[in-house]
Amino acid sequence: MQKYKTDWYLYYLINITLIILVSFPIYWAFVSSIKPPDELITNTPTLFPINPTFESYERIWNLEPTSSRGNVRSAFTNSAIVSIGTVVVSAVISTLAAYALTILRTPFRHFIFLLIIMPILIPGISLLIPLYKLVKELGLMNSYLGLILIHSTGMLTLGVFLMRNAFMSIPTSLREVALLEGSSELRIMFTVMLPLAIPGLLTLMVFALYGSWNDFILAFLFVNTIDMEMLNVFLMKLTFAGSQFDTFWGLLNAGAIISFVPIIIFYIFLQQYFVRGVTGSAVKE
Amino acid sequence: MKLLVKLFLISLTILPFAKTTSAEELIIWSRGGWSDWMVEGFNKKMADEGKDIVAINNLIGHADFQVKFTAALAAGERVDVANIDLINVPYYAAIGALEDMTDFLKSQPYYDQLNGPMLALGSYDGTHFAAPNAADVSGYVYNKKLMPKPPKDWAEMTSMCEDFAARGQLMMAWPSKSYGGMIFTGMPVAWANGGSWVSKDGKTAELNHPKTVEWFKHYQNLINIGCVPENVDVWDWPDKQDGFLAGDIAMIGTGNFMINVVKDHTEKVDAGFTAFMGSDGSRNSAFIGGDLIAIPVTTGAKEAALEYIEYVLSEAGQIEVYTKNGGIPIRADLFEGNPYLTDDHMVFANASTVGDVPYTTVYQELMDPWQVANQRIFAGEDVQTVLDEQNAIMQKIIDAGH
Amino acid sequence: MSRLRKEQLVGLLMVSPALILLAVFFLYPLVNSFYMSFHKWPLFGKPKWVGLDNYIFMFQDERFWESLKFTFVYTLTVTPMLFVVAIGTALLCNAKAWGTTFFRSIYFLPVVMSFATASYVWLWLYSEMYGVIVYALEFFGFGGENKNLNVWKTGTSSMWAVNAMVTWKFSGIQMIILIAGLQAIRDDYYEASKLMGASRWQTIWNVTLPLLRPSIALALILSIAGSIQAYEQFVIMTRGGPSNSTKTLVMHTVDMGFDYFKLGPAASLGVIIMIILFVLTVIQLRLFRKNY
Prior knowledge:
CATH topology of the largest domain in chain A: MetI-like fold
CATH topology of the largest domain in chain B: D-Maltodextrin-Binding Protein, domain 2
Mean pLDDT of chain A: 84
Radius of gyration of chain B: 23 Å
Mean pLDDT of chain B: 90
Number of domains of chain A: 2
Largest interface: A-C, 88 and 89 residues
Structural class of chain A: mainly alpha
CATH superfamily of the largest domain in chain A: MetI-like
Number of helices of chain A: 14
Number of domains of chain B: 2
Oligomer: heterotrimer
Radius of gyration of chain A: 23 Å
Structural class of chain B: alpha/beta
Number of strands of chain A: 0
Strand content of chain A: under 5%
Helix content of chain B: 40-55%
CATH architecture of the largest domain in chain A: Orthogonal Bundle
Largest sheet of chain A: none
Shape of chain A: globular
Low-confidence stretches of chain A: none
Helix content of chain A: 55-70%
CATH class of the largest domain in chain B: Alpha Beta
Low-confidence stretches of chain B: 12-20
Largest sheet of chain B: 8 strands, mixed
Strand content of chain B: 15-25%
CATH superfamily of the largest domain in chain B: Periplasmic binding protein-like II
Number of helices of chain B: 17
CATH architecture of the largest domain in chain B: 3-Layer(aba) Sandwich
């Protein structure tokens, strides 16, 4: 680690400049969402809204369901169920797989690991047509389960990778001792190893939530009913009130903020585990 | 951890529950938000008549309709009624994706009154596969605060442009970056001038038609005079629409939906509407965009689907639902005495009777050379050279087929 | 049953849910798509075996080569940008100073925003007449007299504008990977370097970066795989223009499949992208082999 003694002011100057640059676009999206139209489209943009209005948010919040879309609350709930489901399923499956591939002498483990890495080499969008057929034939259209399983498959690469790092950093002696005491493998994993791999697990969960919460294309393709409508699809439908050539900057920005807030909250709670999550250095610190 | 396992098990049990209703369901896929009112109106009518049909509106939106509809057709997904972007209908009709509705349409008393170009786009080899449904008609919108009267021909447009440039003001802008926006609001100006894009049968590219060349030169000239933003070759649809709504640009090409949009911007905009005109101002034209309505061959309720289409085309659907919410009816006999058609709407309604829409089974692929032609010309390249080159590419795509 | 046998069996059982998911939702569509690439595949009716025709069609298509070239240029420019910002912020956050956790959280923040949202937000920031970036640039005199700035004016400027957004959006992920690597480096190395009288830059160059090699390899592999698959940012921000100069490979693939309905050639494009990425990844692994 490096210390900044004599030039600490430079250190903070750089950091504060960067912070302003990095957070500005997010701030601007928020400010744009509460500016009235004539302040939004103007040659002399102001840093703070002069007459802030929460009209866009109210409009989104109060919309009654129509024959083609639900309301924001049901869409929010649906997205939350799919996201939490994905977080849970991918955590369980990735953990089991990573444990088998790193700790146990599973046959073909190198080959299996390569298989699990493979999805990052293929643009998912080019698999959509066969995937659509498959989802339909499996009867997984309009279901939470279908979306959860596909998202969890998408999370496998990163999830197994993170959990593998986490398990690799745990001294093998811990497991040996437990084995001598006669514990079962599953028990050892849950009670001995996993508690030490918590940062990795939480990092995985943040990414699983990020992937499923921000998804548009799967929710768009594999849901046809209003009671199963996901948040991002709901927000998309709002901007299509009129013609295809219409744009609603206010609604667009408000929608962006609405979908951004829950994940930010989740992230703020978990971010302290992030670095340790990637190294898996739970024991060291 | 036990909690996680439990949650996992619970999540597995959350399976879709099949709806159990006795009524016949009619699954409708649509692109625009207005379809809500249509479906609600239809359901009410069915209930009033005691018929056991319930229409379910699945709003797919404009942007990714193609992706989903393509995947769904390939997978044999049931769709009873599809509202398809009209320019893609020739392709779907050509591959046999849509049900024949010739008899149904021809038996309607208003058959002759249906919008001609839209009807033509829905037919293949003399068979009707789709009916006109909702029209998005293009035209100019101008701001009376900046331009008391719109130009009546190209000469007047040019001299007004000189005045604007002298005052350092912007008179016009167009969305060169948006191929859809350019064919919607640019090409009709060439049509009004007698120009062409592709031949009527869609077999020959005619982008370098002399009258189309003339139009491009006219717009390029406006840029050179200086009443058009100098970066117009990379402007997108929102750029010019925002510019107009902020009161910085006097006139833009737009569609009938603008009548509703400007209502939120009365402080800076006092809007007037006028049709696209040719060089001598004697002819008008418009791009007739919007949806055609069709029954995919994957339907499970053809009779009910026809019933819905009948409602959409009826006076109740076209006037009380569609026109009431700002649309232009697709039946010419419903213009007169229509209480919701204001003078502004009539500009577009009249333009729709002389407007056009290109017929081709490879429309999307042609958008590529079309966009390049726009951007190169408005960046200042020689019109004839660019159009000859891009026309050759278009012809190659047409010859390769779908 | 011997202990090894039992362990192998338990291992297979534990990895099987992952394998099942992978087989059903990834390998099956993949094999299908591979199969499609050798057929003329209409939306309806019977597919027809055409051998390598789709591949030949694709290779003879100028649009393929243009998009391939642009995709490489984009990857070659955005990767160093991402890396420089990521290593810079990683070093800043790895210092022994007050507030590093806070800085780190902020630098990572854009990562959690959805990609589409981020693209729209930046499109709005870049707007020529009402965008705040152009306003600021012109305010500081970059516009010149009577000259309006438009970042989408040329293919090159469009690409840099998108690169800036992507750097903002994704450098956080690489930063975290690099910080993790940095924390694994023991303090003695720095002490030794200091004793030898090395300056801060010399220490970074001679001690930190070489020891960070495995993390750098990971960051670069992820960044290159992501860049070759670039799609959303260009669809939303440049629409492939001006004049097709910013059309990416995946964009071309999607156009082929969903806009031109040429499902066979689209499938063959997917296969080609996979091969390109596979080759690139193997090369990178070779280059970084030491210590990996």
